[in-house]
Design a protein that fits this description.
The complex is a heterotrimer. Chain A is an all-alpha fold. Chain A has one domain: ABC transporter involved in vitamin B12 uptake, BtuC. Chain A is 73% helix and 1% strand. Chain A has a two-stranded antiparallel sheet with strand order 1-2. In chain A, a hairpin with a 2-residue loop joins strand 1 and strand 2. Chain B folds into 2 domains: 237 residues, Rossmann fold (3-Layer(aba) Sandwich), CATH 3.40.50.300; 236 residues, P-loop containing nucleotide triphosphate hydrolases (Rossmann fold, 3-Layer(aba) Sandwich). In chain B, helix 4 packs across helix 5 and helix 9 crosses helix 18. The longest helix of chain B is centred in the C-terminal third of the chain and has 17 residues. The two termini of chain B are 38 Å apart. By secondary structure, chain C is mostly helical. Chain C has a domain of 219 residues. In chain C, helix 2 packs parallel to helix 13. Classes of the chains: A mainly alpha, B alpha/beta, C mainly alpha. Chains A and B meet through helix 9 and helix 10 of A and helix 11, helix 12 and helix 13 of B.
């Protein structure tokens, strides 16, 4: 049976992610207090940790989209940022600050996302075009649609109060959206590991050939992954607008890259076959903590992007290197 | 004068001994044929001498000096060239660019394309003048590509040339040209080592032959001095017939045909296969490696989605173009390449069993406990040596891994079990255990099976009937009492001996 | 006689490049109808000026793609070089221009070697490795130039417009009205690639891109070839950065973001296969011009500029789909020949 040593080995990458979080917080605190002379606890405190997790939530959500697509075998979805933005714009109009149209807004958001996901899926899975280029181009297409739709007009509408409450507000000291994230995490882990859908996803990513010889329809399942990714991105759009109070043109695009990096930092295999969403959330928290550090040091966006790029490279080198089999 | 003398070469891969005592001599200006069945060690010794593998023990004397090349480019620089079946051509470059690849000469600062083209043309003219040197290699057929590969090896002016199955893809005319060129090289003092699965070719072109069996050389025949006697060659190849001791279980094989194939074609590997499988029977597929056997098994498993022919299962026609169709009809494949086709290497034993079930209808929530119990049951039944069902299969031994590949189909209703070289690369003890289990399974559950094995002993021990494949077709059918080593080898080499076939 | 002519015609029309050139010609005709004076010297030069960064970057991208890789960082790399230069230069101190160029060369080498090392030596998948480095270049550029700014010395305008340089001889200005700096740069890039194509490296780039493993078995050092391809790419990126500096006089970190994907599209439209080993690098120029003309045409037929990204995205998808269909058809044809 599983003893403690086996558990450690199996989840070694998750532990590494946890370690990184602790490390970053501690180092950050040391730098802020020791070097910059800030008050102790300004970087590392319960409040700060909770805020960090709240900010990391959106990265984690996009990370879910990426994880689903990556798990089927190393593809990526670079259109989710824009899908979310488009969904945000539509849904905020529909909701218009009231609760009664919430359901329709949600359905439209999912529908729009799933539609673009379907397009992505057809092009990548059936036409066998490279996913990075296809989804990047799709992102462009959606961006164009958004630009055309919003030129000159002010994006009207407001999120419904329920959504606002869920996305932006707190219950006690815990941000509601963090609670949602935790519930989501549990649901995702159950689906991935305990339902046939999740298991099929993992098996294709693990070895498409063997999976095919077991009777699985590889192309169909890959396409479904893209549809799911798009649909989830649609819902994220609603949450984004609930958090910000309004919709604007580049709501989602900044979360895309960290979403991907979160998957890699969390140790989830970029080649596919793994679906540890909790690790992805940890990865997102690592990234957010680093961003906090850069912001505190006054490095802002510059530090953030450089940091993300360097971490991605580092993680790729550690986890992904193609064995030099020659 | 001996150009090459290899003495006492030993080589093992993992726990499996490929060569236990290999000796090989090749003289300047002579063409030495290298013969041997699958697993005899003949290709291993060639690869060692040409630098692809490193020998464990033994000495190689080349050109009077002892050598130990560690890479193909090193041996190439010293005048040893090899033409292998896995071509090393670049598809998008032209014929002449491929021929001089790695050996380009310069004219001042730039590449000397004129020289390259004329050198290429002169070599090609001797082999097949109809190949246009400006064609991109990807547009050539496999015979032409093989010629270009040969030309590429020749352009470096080698002193010792290995030709491993160079004629496999060639037409009769091209073979004649190749042999003419080889004789020309021989007259210049080049030594050649030549293998072919067509015994007649070996007899035609070689000056002498060395026969390998079970990892060592068992005899040489100098054709000039001793003449060309096929029977002698055959007996060297098969050795004394020690008929194996495993008691054959005489089953009740009904004359009902459960699976039928007519004129199965696919690509270049399958050129029209007819096959009938009776209920309860174990039908063997044999022949030299690479004659289309693996492709046949994959085709039967539904792996190729462009197959047009249909199979007839229990009287009903089923399409062969989707794996899910075959599985739904009870036809399951145990592939020979565990890593690529049989297992999810980075996953646990339980996960492997679980994933393999996913092609069948499943409830929304995986019945974890039930499946885990099932997995433990299979481990017990097959005596798989592992601490728990959660060990990653990559860490298990080959034999145990292969047990999983077989065992994962146990929970299902298997009508026809396709075994594609299931014991490849597994040591003898594990092999016996695996086969014992497979046989028990087939008998108890009255499955029918098609067994392809590269080791003839497996075919002898376990098959009720044996089909020998040669160049994508079935060339011989052996009945129960005809299945012995000698007959198999003779049929595999497709040896004809005035008015009929040998053996 | 008729048969020979027919065969020759069939040969030309079957090449993928043929359809690309037809598309280009159609667009040129379309543009000339839309814009008065499209074929005047002034307008042509001004168009080439506008298209230059994409042209140079697309050539570099094509080389990398042919070698079997991809560069998703070229746009941001150019931005980095631009920001570094405009930060270093002080308008009143001409010699800072020299330092700026030296720094640009160093940065270009660093970018090329970094990408080449990751893809060629560490064998990381090119797409995601250069996706990562693109953010590193972006971040560094933001460090240097958080908000658009910077300056150039006056003589730097030599990279954009000879007549804008103070104290420039009249005869140079006259030449410059036809042989503008942008034209010279394109000719230079073409010359560089032309000569590389005649050397071993040129052929090896195609060999490695076509079949990495077999190239290795034939004794080619695939690592070195990948690295060299990325370095050549960086060289072209550097030229684009110099041009941008001369034209804009200031630097902005975000200026390259939209360019990267367009360079991939331009290469594919020009007939370079994403799988590697195939395609004519010079055709990437045609591809870049086509991509740029599309934006122009959109403007001239009064489609709101908001639709630019949409059209761009659609073209990219059409281009890679067409390329894939073409490769698939090629493969199928081959099979039919054998049987």
């Amino acid at each position: 049976m599983m003893n403690s040593k086996n558990i450690l080995l199996k989840y070694k990458k998750t532990f590494i992610a946890l370690l990184l979080i602790v490390l970053t917080f501690v180092v950050g605190e040391l730098i802020m207090v020791g070097v910059k002379g800030a008050d102790p606890g300004s970087f590392l405190s319960v409040n700060q940790v909770l805020i960090t997790i709240k900010l990391a939530t959106f990265i984690s959500l996009f990370g879910l989209c990426e994880m689903i697509v990556i798990s089927t075998g190393g593809d990526m979805d670079l259109s989710v940022g824009w899908i979310a933005t488009l969904a945000a714009i539509f849904s905020t109009r529909i909701m218009d600050g009231k609760n009664q149209n919430l359901l329709i807004a949600i359905l439209i958001a999912i529908g729009v996302g799933a539609a673009f996901g379907l397009l992505n899926g057809l092009l990548v899975s059936y036409a066998k075009l490279p996913s990075l280029v296809v989804t990047l181009a799709m992102g462009n297409i959606i961006q164009g649609l958004i630009n055309a739709y919003t030129t000159g007009i002010h994006i009207s509408g407001e999120p419904s109060p329920i959504v606002k409450k869920l996305a932006a507000k707190y219950t006690g000291i815990v941000p509601n959206i963090v609670t949602i994230l935790l519930i989501l995490c549990i649901i995702v882990i159950i689906i991935i590991y305990k339902t046939k859908i999740g298991v099929k996803l993992l098996s294709i990513g693990s070895n498409p050939n063997t999976a095919y010889l077991s009777g699985l329809n590889i192309k169909l399942i890959r396409m479904i992954a893209f549809i799911a990714s798009g649909a989830i991105a649609g819902i994220i759009g609603i949450l984004l607008v609930g958090n910000a109070g309004t919709a604007y043109k580049d709501m989602g695009s900044n979360y895309l890259m960290p979403g991907i990096v979160a998957v890699v930092v969390g140790g989830v295999s970029v080649k596919g076959g793994e679906g540890n969403y909790f690790a992805v959330i940890l990865g997102a928290i690592v990234l957010q903590t680093l961003t906090n550090l850069f912001v505190s040091l006054g490095w802002g966006d510059a530090g953030k992007w450089t940091g993300y790029g360097l971490i991605l490279i580092l993680m790729l080198i550690t986890y992904v290197r193609n064995k030099r089999s020659r | 004068m001996a150009l090459l003398e290899a003495k006492g070469i030993k080589k093992s891969f993992g726990g499996v001994t490929a060569l236990k005592n290999g000796n090989l001599t090749c003289n300047c200006g002579k063409i030495t044929g290298l013969l041997g069945a699958n697993g005899s060690g003949k290709s291993t010794i060639s690869k060692i001498i040409s630098g692809i593998y490193k020998k464990d023990e033994g000495t190689i004397i080349y050109d009077k000096k002892e050598i130990n090349f560690s890479s193909p480019s090193e041996s190439k620089q010293n005048g040893i060239a090899m033409v292998f079946q896995n071509l090393s051509l670049i598809p998008d470059l032209t014929v002449w660019q491929n021929i001089v690849l790695g050996n380009e000469s310069k004219k001042k600062v730039f590449l000397d394309t004129e020289n390259a083209m004329s050198v290429s043309k002169s070599i090609l003219d001797e082999l097949n003048p109809r190949i246009n040197i400006n064609q991109k290699v990807r547009n050539l057929n496999s015979a032409q590509q093989q010629i270009v590969e040969i030309a590429k090896a020749l352009v470096s002016n080698p002193r010792l040339l290995f030709l491993d199955e160079p004629t496999a893809a060639l037409e009769r005319e091209e073979v004649k040209n190749l042999f003419k060129y080889m004789r020309k090289l021989a007259s210049k003092g080049v030594g050649m080592i030549f293998t072919s699965h067509r015994l007649d070719e070996v007899l035609e072109i070689c000056d002498d032959i060395i026969v390998f069996r079970n990892g060592e050389d068992v005899g040489t025949i100098d054709f000039e001095k001793e003449g060309k006697d096929k029977k002698t060659i055959l007996s060297l190849l098969t050795g004394s017939s020690d008929f194996n001791s495993t008691k054959k279980v005489y089953k009740d094989i009904k004359d009902v045909c459960i699976l039928e194939l007519h004129d199965l074609k696919h690509g270049k590997e399958l050129n029209g296969i007819d096959l009938k499988l009776r209920k309860g029977e174990i039908l063997g597929i044999g022949g030299l490696a690479g004659q289309g056997q693996t492709e046949l098994m994959l085709a039967l498993a539904g792996y190729y989605n462009d197959i047009k022919q249909k199979a007839i299962l229990d009287g009903q026609e089923i399409k062969l173009n989707k794996v899910s169709t075959m599985i739904r009809n009870g036809i399951y494949l145990v592939p020979g390449d565990r890593q690529k086709e049989g297992l999810f290497m980075n996953c646990s034993l339980y996960q492997n069993m679980l994933y393999s079930k996913m092609g069948h209808k499943q409830p929304l929530f995986i019945p974890r406990k039930k499946y885990r119990d099932e997995a433990r049951q299979i481990v017990k039944e097959l005596s798989i040596k592992t601490d728990s069902i959660d060990t990653v299969v990559l860490t298990l031994s080959g034999g145990n891994q292969q047990k999983i590949v077989v065992g994962k189909w146990l929970p299902f209703d298997v009508k026809v079990l396709l075994l594609s070289d299931p014991a490849k690369g597994i040591d003898i003890a594990a092999k016996k255990e695996l086969y014992d289990y497979i046989m028990k399974l087939v008998n108890e559950k009255s499955m029918s099976a098609i067994l392809y094995a590269s080791d003839n002993n497996e075919l002898i021990d376990y098959c009720d009937r044996l089909l020998i494949m040669f160049e994508g077709k079935v060339v011989k059918e052996l009945n129960k009492n005809e299945i012995n080593d000698r007959n198999i080898v003779a049929a595999s080499l497709h040896v004809k001996d005035e008015g009929g076939e040998l053996g | 006689m008729k048969q020979k002519l027919y065969n020759k015609l069939k040969f030309f029309t079957s090449k993928q490049e043929f359809s690309t050139i037809i598309i280009l010609l159609l667009m040129l005709v379309g543009m000339s109808l839309l814009q008065n004076g499209f074929f005047t010297r002034r307008v042509i030069v001004s168009n080439i000026n506008a298209f230059l960064p994409l042209i140079l970057l697309s050539m570099g991208q094509a080389i990398v793609i042919v070698s079997g890789g991809l560069d998703m960082s070229c746009g941001n790399a150019m931005a980095l070089m631009l920001c570094a230069m405009t930060k270093i230069m002080k308008a009143d101190s001409p010699y800072t221009g020299v330092i700026a160029i030296l720094v640009c060369i160093l940065l270009s080498l660093a970018v090329g070697l970094a990408n080449g090392f990751l893809v060629g030596y560490l064998r990381l998948p090119a797409i995601i490795a250069t996706y990562a480095t693109s953010y590193i270049w972006l971040g560094l550029a933001l460090f240097i130039t958080p908000t658009p700014g910077g300056e150039i010395v006056n003589w730097f305008k030599i990279f954009y417009d000879f007549s804008a340089v103070k104290g420039c001889a009249q005869w140079i200005k006259t030449i410059g009205s036809v042989l503008a700096p942008s034209v010279i740069m394109i000719l230079l890039a073409c010359t560089i690639w032309f000569f590389i194509g005649k050397k071993k490296l040129g052929r090896y780039i195609y060999a490695v891109g076509s079949h990495d493993d077999n190239a290795y078995y034939s004794g080619i050092s695939t690592t070195k070839v990948h690295i060299k391809a990325y370095v050549i790419n960086s060289l072209f990126i550097m030229m684009a950065a110099l041009y941008f500096a001369g034209q804009n006089g200031a630097g902005s970190a975000n200026i390259g973001e939209t360019l990267t994907l367009q360079t991939v599209a331009a290469a594919v439209v020009g007939g370079v296969a994403l799988s590697g080993g195939k395609g004519n690098v010079f055709m990437a120029i045609v591809g870049a011009i086509i991509m740029s003309l599309v934006s122009k045409i959109i403007y001239y037929i009064n489609v709101p500029s908001a639709w630019q990204s949409f059209v761009s995205g659609v073209i990219i998808i059409i281009a890679i789909s067409a390329s894939a269909i073409y490769s698939y058809a090629e493969k199928r044809n081959l099979l039919r020949e054998v049987n």
